[in-house]
C-alpha cells in the first residue's frame, strides 16, 4: 500500500480512493485515534512501514525509546492496525511479562471494536501465554488460544453432523473439505498449545518486542530463528529496570544486558517518544530532567488524565512523610522492613480513602523490599481495599515491589523506602533505574514515606528530595510522639498486650 495514504491517515485527513489504491476499504478515516497521535508517534509508525515495504535484503531493526507514560501501548496497537492494511505480513508481538502482553491485547481489541469498518478479522489475532493466569481474564476469550480451540471443536462437531445427517441440498463435498481443513487447524493448534510443535517452524515476517530493555539477549535468539523475518521493532527504555537475573555468577557475566541496551551503546540510531500523558507535570518534571535530558515533555492540552479534571482537584501532588531515625529499619532472613513506615502508610490509606475515595480509583503501594511488601499486605485496611468484592466501594489498592509495578500506573502512589540508619546505607535504593520506575507510576499524587537523613547521603536521592521541598511538601508527621500514638493504637486495636507492655516499659517490640 502506498505510504502516502497512511501518512495522510496519520495526519487525520479524509481520503477517497479507488479499489486499486486500498483494497476492501472505502475510506481511510475508519480507524479511530489517529488524530490523537503526536509527531513522534506518527514518525515511528511511518518509519516502520517504510522498513517493512522496503526492498532491503537484510533484517531491518527499529529502536524506539519509550519513557514512562509516552503511550507505547497505544502506539504499538496503532502500528498493528496500519500493518493490517498490508495484509501480506505475519506479525509476532511479544513482551517479557504477561501484564505487558495483555495490556497490548486489551488496547488493540478496544480500538478494533471502535472501528466502523471491518477490513480485518478478530480471528487473525491470537494470544498465547500462561494458561492459569489467562484463564482468570474473561475479556480475553475472543483471542485466547484455549477458548479458540473449544469453539473450533464445536464447529467441527456441527460440520460432521451436517455431513452425516444434512439434507440432500447440502454440498457434502464442500463441507468435507471444510471439515478436514478445520480438523487440521485444530490438531496443529493443539500441538502448539502443548508445546510439541517447534516454535522455530512458525513463519513471522515482522516482530515487535515491547519492554525490550527487560529481555535478555539470549532470549532474542528465539526471534532471530525466524528465517523470513524482515523487520524487528524493539520498544524499550534503558533508563528503567534491566532484565531480571537472580544468579550472581550470571550477573558478573553480563546476562542482565539486553539487545536494546547493547545497540544503544553501539550508537545505533533510535526514535524517541517524547510526550508523556500519564503524570502530573510536577511529578514528571524531575525524572524528565534527570533521566531524559529534558527531552520528555508533558502533554498539557489533551489526554485522558489532563481532561479528567483531577489535576485541578489535587493540590498536594508531591508529598514526603519524614519518618525519624528512632523508627529504624529492621532485618530478617527475608529482607528489610520498617514498622514506622507501615503505620504511616496505614494511616495514609485510611485518610485518602476517607477524603478522596470518590476521586481516586487506584492506589499503588510500592517498596523495593519484599519483606516490607509482605507486611503491608497484612494491614487490615489494605486487605479490605484489595478484595475484588469491594473494589467499587474503595480505591483499589495494589501492593508490590518496584520490579512488579514496572509498566503499570496508578492515580496515587505511596512509596515506602524502608532504609533508616545512622550510617547512610541505602542498599539497592541507589539504583537510578529503580528510582525512576518507582516515581513514574503515579498519575496525580506521589507520596514518599522515608527517612530523609538516610537517603540524603545519596546524591540522586538528595536531588529528588530537594526537588520535592521546592515544588511539593515535606511533613515531619512521623515525629516520635505521633508515631508512638499510632503504634500504641495499633497494639490496642490488635489486642497485642505483650507487645504493648514491652513498648511502654522497654521502648521496643
UniProtKB/TrEMBL annotation:
Give the species.
Zophobas morio
- Which Pfam families did the record assign? AAA_12 (PF13087), AAA_19 (PF13245)
Q: GO cellular component terms? A: chromosome
Name assigned to this protein:
DNA2/NAM7 helicase-like C-terminal domain-containing protein
The superkingdom of the source organism is Eukaryota
The record places domain DNA2/NAM7 helicase-like C-terminal at 255-452
Could you state a single Gene Ontology molecular function term?
Answer: helicase activity
> What are the UniProt keywords, alphabetically?
ATP-binding, Helicase, Hydrolase, Nucleotide-binding
Q: Does the keyword 4Fe-4S apply?
A: no
Q: Which Gene3D superfamilies match?
A: P-loop containing nucleotide triphosphate hydrolases
Q: Which residues form the signal peptide?
A: none
Amino acid at each position: 500500500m502506498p505510504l502516502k495514504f497512511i501518512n495522510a491517515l496519520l495526519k487525520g485527513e479524509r481520503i477517497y480512493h479507488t479499489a486499486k489504491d486500498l483494497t476492501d476499504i472505502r475510506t481511510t478515516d475508519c480507524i479511530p485515534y489517529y488524530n490523537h497521535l503526536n509527531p513522534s508517534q506518527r514518525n515511528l509508525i511511518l518509519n516502520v512501514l517504510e522498513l517493512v515495504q522496503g526492498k532491503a535484503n537484510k533484517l531491518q531493526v527499529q529502536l524506539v525509546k519509550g519513557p514512562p507514560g509516552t503511550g507505547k501501548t497505544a502506539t504499538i496497537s496503532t502500528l498493528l492496525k496500519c500493518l493490517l492494511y498490508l495484509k501480506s505480513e505475519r506479525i509476532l508481538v511479544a513482551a517479557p511479562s504477561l501484564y505487558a502482553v495483555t495490556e497490548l491485547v486489551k488496547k488493540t481489541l478496544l480500538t478494533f471494536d471502535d472501528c466502523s469498518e471491518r477490513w480485518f478479522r478478530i480471528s487473525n489475532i491470537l494470544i498465547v501465554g500462561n494458561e492459569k493466569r489467562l484463564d482468570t481474564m474473561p475479556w480475553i476469550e475472543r483471542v485466547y488460544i484455549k477458548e479458540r480451540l473449544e469453539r473450533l471443536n464445536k464447529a467441527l462437531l456441527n460440520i460432521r453432523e451436517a455431513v452425516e445427517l444434512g439434507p440432500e441440498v447440502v454440498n457434502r463435498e464442500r463441507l468435507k473439505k471444510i471439515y478436514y481443513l478445520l480438523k487440521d487447524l485444530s490438531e496443529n493448534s493443539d500441538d502448539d498449545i502443548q508445546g510439541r510443535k517447534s516454535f522455530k517452524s512458525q513463519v513471522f515476517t515482522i516482530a515487535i518486542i515491547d519492554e525490550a530493555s527487560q529481555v535478555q539477549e539470549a532470549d532474542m535468539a528465539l526471534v532471530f530463528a525466524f528465517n523470513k523475518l524482515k523487520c524487528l521493532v524493539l520498544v524499550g527504555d534503558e533508563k528503567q529496570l534491566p532484565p531480571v537475573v537472580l544468579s550472581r555468577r550470571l550477573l558478573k557475566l553480563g546476562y542482565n544486558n539486553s539487545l536494546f541496551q547493547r545497540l544503544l551503546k553501539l550508537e545505533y540510531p533510535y526514535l524517541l517518544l517524547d510526550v508523556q500523558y500519564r503524570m502530573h507535570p510536577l511529578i514528571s518534571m524531575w525524572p524528565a530532567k534527570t533521566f531524559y535530558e529534558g527531552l520528555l515533555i508533558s502533554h498539557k492540552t489533551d489526554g485522558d488524565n489532563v481532561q479528567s479534571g483531577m489535576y485541578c482537584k489535587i493540590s498536594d501532588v508531591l508529598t514526603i512523610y519524614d519518618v525519624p531515625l528512632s523508627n529504624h529499619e529492621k532485618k530478617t532472613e527475608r529482607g528489610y522492613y520498617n514498622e514506622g513506615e507501615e503505620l504511616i502508610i496505614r494511616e495514609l490509606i485510611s485518610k485518602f480513602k476517607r477524603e478522596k475515595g470518590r476521586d481516586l480509583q487506584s492506589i499503588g503501594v510500592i517498596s523495593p523490599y519484599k519483606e516490607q511488601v509482605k507486611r503491608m499486605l497484612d494491614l487490615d485496611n489494605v486487605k479490605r481495599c484489595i478484595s475484588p468484592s469491594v473494589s467499587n466501594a474503595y480505591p483499589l489498592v495494589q501492593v508490590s515491589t518496584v520490579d512488579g509495578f514496572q509498566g503499570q500506573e496508578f492515580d496515587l502512589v505511596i512509596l515506602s523506602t524502608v532504609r533508616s540508619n545512622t550510617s547512610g546505607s541505602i542498599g539497592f535504593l541507589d539504583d537510578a533505574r529503580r528510582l525512576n520506575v518507582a516515581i513514574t507510576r503515579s498519575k496525580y499524587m506521589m507520596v514518599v514515606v522515608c527517612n530523609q537523613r538516610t537517603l540524603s547521603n545519596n546524591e540522586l536521592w538528595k536531588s529528588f528530595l530537594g526537588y520535592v521541598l521546592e515544588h511539593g511538601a515535606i511533613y515531619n508527621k512521623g515525629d516520635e510522639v505521633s508515631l508512638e500514638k499510632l503504634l500504641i493504637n495499633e497494639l490496642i486495636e490488635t489486642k497485642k498486650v505483650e507487645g504493648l507492655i514491652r513498648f511502654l516499659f522497654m521502648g521496643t517490640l
